[in-house]
């Protein structure tokens, strides 16, 4: 938990309203201390920057700065995709605004961590990185005013690629509100070149459904039992949603029903009649709660379900594990921290000021050796860093 005696050590907030593609405004909130030196790019296991470095592979694909870089497996050709949020053509935030989401791909991933991730090509193909979805920022695209559409997770199965996203209307919402307009699922049948939106959207805060538990999703994957398991929570990509409460729910759906957009076919993990059970009779129950949580990720790695998330109050990327998605989860374990001097359970942990994100790479070496993709931004427009970094060998 955060320490009230050290207000300068509270976590920063994420970037705010994009100014018509030209940059970002400074987020309200405390940014105590100075930015520590960036980890060495040679230390692939402990914070290798994947963009905003001179001559790096991201810049070669037309992306200078970006965050999130949500990794997913492209099963059709055995390659890897990385879905970025708000992205820019040049290092720092002074370049052309590319949009959100943006995708870079990698032909082969080294799970050992001896070689950091290197991007091989951008999507859509030809002409370098650019926005995947066809919509306008700071405009009404038929659903009401949208600042940006932020990706939360991506998965490919059965020849179709899916991105779950949140449409943001207010980046700095009033206390107790999340600022979302809606959440939705977009899909691509040509592996990321063109995208379509499912007609059903989950209404958000500015449509009168504040704190919707369907705001942010993570696709845990298709289990050997044949179900696609999905974890979801309230939108808190701004890290300002004080009503988030760390609440996470779980549902599952048959892959063919998901592909058809028949989202009403989901089964919910709920506490009903004195016991936990799968049911369609009621909505999912909260399975985890606690500190406010920003970005999160759940993946099945080597038969173990692994979870990571940005704990906004603790100012750290935490992990948990479970043998099954509907089993009891282990206690949270801080792995990468914004401040390694406080609180005491941060001592000795890798330190990355102004961190957030923390996505599990589905190609991780194993359930005791995860690769995490962590974002960093110091809150200053047109200044570095605004990037993602790779951490390997994380034991949850």
Task: Give an account of the 3D structure.
The protein is mostly beta strands. It has one domain: Tachylectin-2, Chain A. Helix content is 2%, strand content 37%. The chain contains two helices and 27 strands. The protein has helices at residues 57-60, 255-259; strands spanning 46-49, 65-66, 70-74, 79-84, 87-88, 97-99, 102-106, 121-123, 139-140, 145-146, 148-157, 160-168, 180-188, 196-197, 202-203, 216-222, 228-233, 248-253, 267-272, 275-279, 293-301, 304-311, 316-322, 333-337, 355-360, 370-377, 386-394. Strands 11, 12, 13, 14 and 15 form a five-stranded antiparallel β-sheet that branches. It has a five-stranded antiparallel β-sheet with strand order 16-17-18-19-20. A four-stranded antiparallel β-sheet has the order 1-27-26-25, with no helix packed on it. β11 and β12 form a beta hairpin. It is globular and about 60 Å long. Residues 1-44 have low confidence and may be disordered.
* Element-by-element helix/strand order: EHEEEEEEEEEEEEEEEEEHEEEEEEEEE
CATH top level assignment: Mainly Beta
Please estimate the helix content: under 10%
What's the architecture, going by CATH?
5 Propeller
CATH superfamily: Glycosyl hydrolase domain, family 43
Q: How many distinct helices?
A: 2
CATH topology: Tachylectin-2, Chain A
Return the average pLDDT rounded to an integer: 90
Rg, nearest Å: 19 Å
What does the overall shape look like?
Answer: globular
N- to C-terminal distance = 19 Å
Helix vs. strand class = mainly beta
Number of domains: 1
Largest sheet: 5 strands, antiparallel
Low-confidence stretches: 1-44
Quote the beta fraction. 35-45%
Number of DSSP strands?
Answer: 27
